[in-house]
UniProtKB/TrEMBL annotation:
The lineage of its organism: Eukaryota, Viridiplantae, Streptophyta, Embryophyta, Tracheophyta. It is found in: Secreted. Belongs to the plant self-incompatibility (S1) protein family. It comes from the Eukaryota. It comes from Hibiscus trionum (Flower of an hour). One of its GO terms (cellular component) is extracellular region. Keywords: Secreted, Self-incompatibility, Signal. This is S-protein homolog. One of its GO terms (biological process) is rejection of self pollen.
Length: 143
């Protein structure tokens, strides 16, 4: 029994020390996902929602979010141990147009969303869903 203690304790200590560099790793980072309604008003009144956003992951359903023009909806997530965290959204807007997109994919976004305050920025526009890693340059990721 004494032999087990003399081997297990140093191994446990070594393993704990190995985890220290991971204390600020992606597994402990809180990512902020933003989806902004940048659709034109068309025939909608200014304070009337013209976008219905529904986002969810395997374990968490955020539900339907009616959004007016210019509104930003935000939620937070962390990357799970297996790096399989995925939030996907369906955007529906006036004219019955609908588009689905991955708002957060751990493998794709773990690095690119670190640049701007650990935020993934999305903009729903009439010609697609745009992504920005700095809130200045936008890329049409979903046409």
């Amino acid at each position: 029994m004494c032999n087990l203690k003399s081997v297990a304790l140093p191994l446990l200590l070594a393993f704990s020390l190995m985890l220290l560099p991971f204390s600020e790793s992606i597994y402990f980072t809180n990512y902020h996902i933003h989806v902004r309604n940048d659709l034109p008003l068309l025939n909608s009144p200014p304070n009337h929602p013209n976008l219905l956003l529904h986002c969810k992951s395997k374990k968490r359903d955020i539900g339907d979010r009616p959004m007016v023009k210019g509104q930003d909806y935000t939620w937070d997530t962390k990357i799970n141990f297996f790096r399989t965290t995925l939030f996907f959204c369906n955007a529906r807007w006036v004219g019955h147009k609908s588009m689905s997109f991955d708002a957060f994919d751990a493998i794709r976004d773990e690095e690119r969303c670190l640049e701007y305050h650990t935020s993934c920025m999305w903009s729903v526009r009439s010609d697609g869903i745009y992504f920005s890693f700095n809130n200045a340059t936008w890329y049409n990721d979903y046409h």
